[in-house]
Amino acid sequence: MSYNLKFATLCAKYNLGLLMNEPEPITGGLLHRMYRLQTDKAQYAVKALNPQIMQRDTAMSNYIFSEMVANLAYQKGIHAVPAIVSNGSSMHEVEGQFYLLFPWVQGKALRSSTSSISHRERMIITLKRL
User: Across the strands, what pairs with 25?
Assistant: First the structure.
């Protein structure tokens, strides 16, 4: 099963605005594909979820739960970027392809090779506060 990327349809269905140019692939992910999407309304980070992974029985519920945790963290003042919720769900679907949509945030990822024990300890303490 392969990706079925329909960015213009995604924009129209979820009122993201008019697609301004071809979405830019963002590197770094291993399981899914990420894109920077520019519309006439805003910029978005779009995670196109791997269709093979989404066929697993628990995949959908795991992603929904993960976004509930991210939303809770954000509400508690933790610097998290939860997925955009549309029609009551963080999961967005177009022609069988599932997406998570995020507001575009400029930044850079902390590589696992440069993270320290103190980074991990802070994450654990933060999660325990939830």
Answer: 35
